Amino acid sequence: MVIKAPGEKTVRASLHRPKVFTEYSPISGVPDRLITAPQTRFARLVARRLNEHNCGKTEEMRMLYRQLGNSDLIVSEIALGSWLTYGVGVETPQARACLDAAFDCGINFIDTANVYGQGAAESFLGESLQGRARDSYVLATKLFFPMSATDQGLSAVQIHKQLDDSLRRLRTDYVDLYQCHRYDEHTPLEETMRALTEVVEAGKARYVGFSEWTAPQIRAVMEIPGVVSFVSSQPQYSMLYRVPEAEVIPLCASNGISQIVWSPLAQGVLTGKYGKSQKPPADSRAANPKMNIFIGKWLREDLLKHVDDLNRIASDLGISTAQLALAWVLREPNLAAAIIGASRPAQVLENALASGIRLDDVSLKAIDAVLAGHWIS
After folding, report:
1. Would you place residue 5 in the very low, low, confident or very high pLDDT band (cuts 50, 70, 90)?
2. Mean pLDDT of the chain
3. What's the rounded Cα separation, in Å, for the pair 205 and 208?
4. Half-sphere exposure of 157 toward its Cβ, with a 13 Å CA cutoff?
5. d(CA 265, CA 324)
6. What is this structure's pTM?
7. Facing residues of 205 across strands?
8. Which has the higher per-residue pLDDT, 220 or 309?
9. Burial of residue 56 (number of CB atoms within 10 Å: 0-12, 13-18, 19+)
10. Annotation marks residue 116 as catalytic
11. In whole angstroms, what is the distance from residue 118 CA to residue 88 CA?
């Protein structure tokens, strides 16, 4: 993919990063099936479907892959999430089309949680993934938030119960990654870690991770002997929300823990679809009462004006604003994947094209200049 920085000569985006694999077999989940051909079956299929969905054209599509922490999991740097979408705000046929599109363009990493739709997202995935080889994708889920009046948190009882329930809904014997959705202040950390160790030893989860833990909480885990190690952290991270950069990312990078970031598009605001003083598109997340619960803080008029300026930067580079935002988070070497949410296949395919885009210093400085004073850090 060729991009041009504002005021600079045309440059070619790099397709190489540390611990990144340029191609990956869509029929296997192990590193020895890596392939190097620039035009694979799924790449050609993506190009054709991009035309079908009117979301742009590409002569070549490559999905890049990264190692997840100190695990042996190799994951696509664009992951498909299911928060507020599948089993909740998106009808099943459309949701399946999005899932199919993800596999078509090389996404092999699917993230969900037991609380999404109170199990509905997991149930959707369990049904929709039937017929696909289990080693062809990396499946992650989470626990912590209430599933009933008495079922919540990270106690040993809940870890075993909620994982068994998740496996039943997902119709699988194991998940590749089991994540603590938040930190549990009411359960001893040692109890949580011993229970996580037990489910890994039982083969029900291959690896474990956490979401939105602070640096002191992460350090506390490292001091517990004889328990399984975390391989992933799932924080909110985007151009507009940079809090993890201060402590969490440096700590994780030094201890074999990768970031899997959620909301890299700030609930869709960083796609550029929400113009200043304009009504949200009828088919957008902001217009859907089932999915617009958390988007309000990003729809401020002053902020949308600056997002409009990002649109111009992206246009100068020959990419979409969504691809610009995803490329921005993917510049972080400690990041393994950016989780996208999509209600239409065209969105999946457009976002997948962000894989491999490398923004130069001129573009990164231009982004910071536009958003100065408007990101949370």
Report:
1. very low
2. 83
3. 7
4. 4
5. 10
6. 0.81
7. 175
8. 220
9. middle
10. yes
11. 9
Report how many helices (DSSP H) and strands (DSSP E) the chain contains, helices first: 11, 13
Q: Poorest-confidence range of 51-60, 254-263, 326-335? A: 51-60
- Cα separation, 84 vs 357, in Å, equals 28
Q: Is the pLDDT of residue 274 over 80?
A: no
C-alpha radius of gyration, the chain, whole number: 20
Residue 364 neighbours by CB under 8 Å, 6+ apart: 328, 331
Dmax over CA atoms of the chain, in Å, equals: 61
The pLDDT of residue 87: 82
CB 314 within 8 A of CB 320: yes
Q: Which domains does the chain have, with CATH numbers?
A: 2-45+74-263+326-371 (3.20.20.100)
Which positions ≥6 away from 84 have C-beta within 8 Å?
116, 285, 290, 291, 293, 341
CA torsion angle 366 369 372 376 (round to 10): 10
Compute the distance between CA of residue 344 and CA of residue 55 in angstroms, rounded to an integer. Answer: 11
Q: Are 192 and 214 in contact (CB under 8 A)?
A: no
| Structure-block tokens of residue 352 | 């997948």
Write the DSSP string, 81-141: --TTSBTTTB-HHHHHHHHHHHHHTT--EEE--TTGGGGHHHHHHHHHTTTS-GGGSEEEE
Inter-residue contact 224 to 216 (CB < 8 Å):
no
pLDDT digits (tens, 9 = 90+) for 95-142: 999 999 999 999 999 999 999 999 999 999 999 999 999 999 999 999
Q: Which of 24, 65, 86, 116 is catalytic?
A: 116
Please list, in sequence order, all residues whose beta carbon lies within 8 angstroms of the beta carbon of residue 289, skipping any fewer than 6 positions away: none
Q: Name the nearest CA neighbour of 239 among 338, 107, 124.
A: 338
CA count, 13 A, side-chain hemisphere, 184: 23
Within 10 angstroms of residue 149's Cβ, the number of other Cβ atoms is 6
Q: How far is it, in rounded angstroms, from Cα 116 to Cα 85?
A: 9
